[in-house]
Amino acid sequence: MKKLIALFSLVLTLGLVGCSSKSEVKDIPVSDIKSAINNETLLPIQPIFDIDAKEFYVFENVKDDIKEGFVLQAMINVKLQDVFVVKTDNVEKVKKAIEEYKTNNLRSFSDGYGGEENATAVADSILESVGDYVYFIATNNAKDIESKILEMIK
């Protein structure tokens, strides 16, 4: 009977350890991520449009789900340079809003408006989530910016 209880306890302990794996995502302010991107001069097109995500029209229907976030874009309207980072309670809802933006608003860039670089930036854009962070990057160096974001939050 003691062996059975010991075995049962071991199974329960292993089950708890397996189900309680701690998230590997750091809880840092998105303003730190923005500073890191700007300080690394990862955004070659200057000046940039910098706005709080809650104030950006794309997030109008999901702004109550946003804890914090930012949107960086090139102020030159013929060059695509979009970087959005949002911390949210509803990852899927925010991703859907960004997907709609990409489909509807970046269509002219994907068709080559402003040059082949813009079409490539849309085609190679990154929309991902890690923990409660959602990020969208549509630039020619999207992988470099994604690496910096992941370095900050993981």
From TrEMBL:
UniProt xrefs under InterPro entries: DUF4358
A Pfam family it matches: DUF4358
Superkingdom in the source lineage: Bacteria
UniProt keyword annotation of Lipoprotein present: yes
PROSITE patterns: PROKAR_LIPOPROTEIN (PS51257)
Keywords: Lipoprotein
Protein's UniProt name: Lipoprotein
Annotated source species: Romboutsia ilealis
